[in-house]
Structure formats: structure tokens, C-alpha cells
Amino acid sequence: MTKNQLVRNAQTLGIISAAIAVVACSTFPGGAVPTLKAATGANLPNCSALADQIKLPNTKIESSALVPAGTIKLGNNAVSEHCLVKGRMHERKGADGRDYAIGFEMRLPLAWNGRFFYQGNGGLDGAVVPAVGALGGGPLTGALMQGFAVISSDAGHTGPQTPFFGSEPQARLDYGYQAVEKLTPMAKQLIQSAYGKGPDRSYIGGCSNGGRHAMVAASRLGDQYDGYLVGAPGYRLPYAALAQIWGAQKWAAIATPGTTVKNPMNPNGTLPDLASAFTSEERATVSRAIANKCDALDGVVDGMVQATQACQAIFDIKKDVATCTGQRNGACLTETQKSVIAEVFGGAQTNTGQRIYANFPYDTGVAGANWGTWKFIDSLIRDPLAISTIFSVPPKPLNPLQENVTERLAMFTSTNDTYPESGWSLMTPPQESKPSNMGALRARGAKMVLYHGVSDAIFSAEDTRQWMERLSQENVNPGSDFARYFPVPGMNHCSAGLATDQFDLLTPLVQWVEQGIAPQAVVAAARGAGNAGGVNAELPTSWSPSRTRPLCAYPSVATYNGSGSVEDAKNFSCK
Ligand SMILES: [Ca+2]
Questions:
Q1: Phi, psi for 523 (deg, rounded to 5)
Q2: Residue 318 C-alpha to ligand 1 middle, in angstroms?
Q3: How far is the CA of 573 from the centre of ligand 1 (A)?
Q4: Which residues lie near ion ligand 1 (Cβ < 5 Å)?
Q5: What distance in Å separates the CA atoms of residue 365 and residue 343, rounded to the nearest whole number?
């Protein structure tokens, strides 16, 4: 079966599920969901004149210039000729005396498909990442290449202002959600001015903090976007970051005393070697133990554990990994290590038992380098900086290994005269724990597609799964007719790991919004030797370099059909 055939099969499944949803909708509140009218394209008549022509409130357009075809590539694929517009919104003097603005760029295809894509960027923002709307790990395609007009922004601060912008009251609000609120209507007006009509359909997407931006927009800007592509959403970012601090203290307690590693943020500095608590060899051992227990649950032993939920029910770190009888040798864990690992996977809690963040699923990608970097390095650098400057009221430095996480937790919901909005409020979607406010979005015909690496070490895939479950419990996703979640087994944070991490979930999202074709299975590829999007060097040599798998809408699982090559997605079905 070719990729197109698989997509067609998925479409058939989608039509069936859509039909079921229509039949069933009379029993659910809200009624049937509409399919929105498809976008129609237009051509860009002029690029260089735009900078002088476009006059928008609170906006300075700095330049507009043609970018020739092929100047930007994703993999071997050239982005066609387009117009690059650069500008700034809301230039101002900050309370800290620094100059702030919301820097942005828009890339406008000469042959436009009638759609707008807001590219949410990752990390702490602070950079206008090229507005190509790149999709999936090792991207081979993106929104710009597909004909969207794309915006990207720094979310209101520059790189040198990161993370200190977090103490400037307006800059932290812009980072949290207000930059998206301000840029969205501006971008639509700019598109109107450039093409002679505004976007017919609008989409927002990103991964990590970009996924958070999309998730927050679904809650705050439900009338502005028709499709939300939510990758590894750090939608409870302050809590995920605090869980990292809590975790660092757990690792530190069993790390080898006196060992250090280089501090990547400071060439002359060192950090405690938290990885000595759970070495890469030991993580590979745990990965193999998970595979030994769970690989066959999806019908084939292929080095991939697709049946994540079934695996959680049977994998037991204490029983399924050898216990060291003498010195640690990489192939076993001590009882103490097992206890700490179980505690970290079980999810961070305060010393009074209050849950700080979600648990993490056991999955083979625990062996990935990215997993270790997040747990053992970023927990000592990135997370403390973000917590101290952006999420806390008032801002207050912290030493990750000394911090009282219970006291810090209270600072996420506190306010004062300088910071009238709490860190929790500015970072998370309103009513994130009770997503019934998604009902209006659903009724309007908007759609959400979520994805998450099951072996993400910073934002837990379990947190995303639980959000989906809450949607169902509140009856705002009957028949999965509004939101669908695609876990990516083995994948670390947004890419990498023991995974097929190269995929395009935007195209199926557009088909769902504009054609009513609900996605059930989307083909993802491994990035083995020769992959144009960049090779994932951690893939086992036993895998074909071009292995493919369907990503399956939760709770269905990519299950082997019983015959045919295990390297080919066509021999798997979502069951
Ligand atoms: Ca398997």
C-alpha cells in the first residue's frame, strides 16, 4: 500500500467515524459539528511596495522583499518564491528601562492558498524563527511550502533579554499570551492588505512552548483560529518546570558525590553530574526491559512499543529490571535507584502530597540523549531561570538543589501590585483543568489535533492524554469529532528517540476542518541513514532507515496486521 492509499484508508475511517459522530450527535450536547468552507487561494500582486503601503495600528513595517525559490529548503524540498515582511508591534520602554517590542516576520507566498498559519515558537521565545511553519521532527514540509501565509514572532522580547524579560510586567504577559492576541488581528489585516482579501481559514501550531501557545489560543482566541495543531504542549509549563526542580533534587540525592559536568550556559562553570544517578547505559537497560515486557503487545516484536497504555498496566520497574547484587555495571539498578526512578515517573508532589505535575509513562525513548539532557541538565539551568524570572510573583532567584518546592508552588498563583496577573494565569489556558470552555470552539467547527512524544522528558505525554480524557468526561468531544490526539511512541521532546518522528499533521488538520475528514492514521517515518530531514543517529541498526508507522488517534494503537514487512506502515492498522 502506498502512502496515498494509507491516507485514503485513513480518510475512509475518518468518514466512518464522522458518520458515527453525526448519528450519535443527537445524544450529546452541542449537536453536530459543522465542516467549514474550504479556503480559496489568491496571488500576491506586489511585494516590495508592501512596506510603504501597509499602515496598521501599533505596527511598524520595516521591510518587504522577495525571497527567491529555493533560498529556504526543508530537507531537499525548496520553498517557493515568497514575500518576507518584517516588522515590530508595540514598541515601548519597559519598566526596567529596556526597549521592548513584539518583533515579527511574515512570509507571504506569491501563490497563496487562502490560509493563515501562526507559528508558535519554542522555549522562552526571544527569536523571530523563520516563518516557514516547519512540521514534525526533521521537517520535510511546512505551512509556507504548502501555500500558507505564515507569521513568526519573538513574543515580545529579544534573545539578550531572555530570561530577564520575565521580571518586566508587560513582557511576561506578552510571552504568556498577549503577543499572540496582538499579532493575530494585525496579521489578518496585513494579509487583507497584501492579497486584497483576508484569510478564509486560520491555523495555529507549534511544539513545546509553541504547542502551549496553540493550546492557550484554543482557550483564549477560539474565535480567531479554525485549526489548532498542538505539539507536546507545555500547557502547564510552570508546574512542569517545578517538577523538574523536584526531580533534580531526587536525582541529586543518589548522584555520585563530587562528580560534575560542564555547564553549557557558562564555559567556566560546572554542574553536579545528575546523570550519574541514572546513566545512559542504565537508561538503555530500562528501555530494553520496557521493550521485553511490552514490545509484543502491538502484535510484533519490532523494537517499538505502540501499546503505551497496556504497557503501563504491566511494566514494573522494580520487578522487570535486574537488581544489582554488587557494583553498578549498567545492566542493573540498585533498589534505591529503582525507588527514585519510580518516584520521578510517578509525578512530582509537594512534601504534603499535593500533586505538582503529571506522571510520566514508561516508554523506550528513556534511552534517548534528549531525555537525559532535559532531566539532568535543563533542570539545573533552564527551568530555574524560567521559574525565578517569569512564573513567580514576585520574581525570586532559586537554587534548584536547595529550593523548597512547596513554597515556590504558592508563588505561581500569587499576585501583587506590580504583577496583577499570576504566573499560572499568564502561562496556562484558562480553565485548563475543566476544558468545557472548548464547547464553543467545537460548535463553531474548529478542530484540534494534538501530538506528543510518549518519551518526552519535560512535558509529560500523560498530561496531554489526561486533558483528552477530561474533554471526553465533559462531553465536549463526542465521537472524537472535535479533538484528536496522536501519541508518538518512543519520541522524545518534539523529535528524536526510538521513534518514527517525521510527519505532517497539518495537512490532515486542514482536511478535517475544511472537508470533514477526521484523521485516524497519519504516516510517520523514521529518520535513518540518508534522510533528507536530518538523520536520527540513535535509531537501532536493526531498523530500516526508512521505516514507517501510522500514528494512530488515541486510544487506537498501531497494531501489526500479521503479515508483511514490519518496516512498512501499510502492514499496521490503528486498532
Ligand atoms: Ca512492537
A1: -75, 130
A2: 22
A3: 13
A4: 295, 298, 302, 304
A5: 18
pLDDT tens per residue, range 238-274: 999 999 999 999 999 999 999 999 998 888 999 999 9
Which has the closest alpha carbon to 387: 408, 416, 406, 373?
408
Q: What is the pLDDT of residue 437?
A: 78
The DSSP line for 371-421 is HHIIIIIGGGTHHHHHIIIIISSS-----TTT--HHHHHHHTT---SS--S
Catalytic residues: 208, 456, 493
Does the pTM of the predicted model rise above 0.90?
yes
* d(C-alpha 197, C-alpha 42), whole Å: 8
Q: Can you say whether residue 105 is alpha, beta or left, with left for phi > 0 and alpha for psi between -120 and 50 degrees? A: beta
Q: Across the strands, what pairs with 300?
A: none
Written as one string, the DSSP assignment of 99-152 is EEEEEEEEEEESEE-SEEEEEE--TT--S---S--B-SSS-S-BTTTTT-EEEE
Amino acid identity of 100?
A: Y
> How much distance in Å is there from the Cα of 307 to the middle of ligand 1?
8
* CA 113/CA 147 separation, integer angstroms: 5
The amino acid present at 435, given as its one-letter code, is P
Furthest-apart CA pair in the chain: how many Å? 75
Q: Where are the beta strands (DSSP E) in 419-498?
A: 447-453, 483-488
3-state secondary structure of 164: helix
Ligand 1: distance of its center to the CA of 560 in Å? Answer: 8
Q: 247: which 3 cell numbers?
A: 526531580
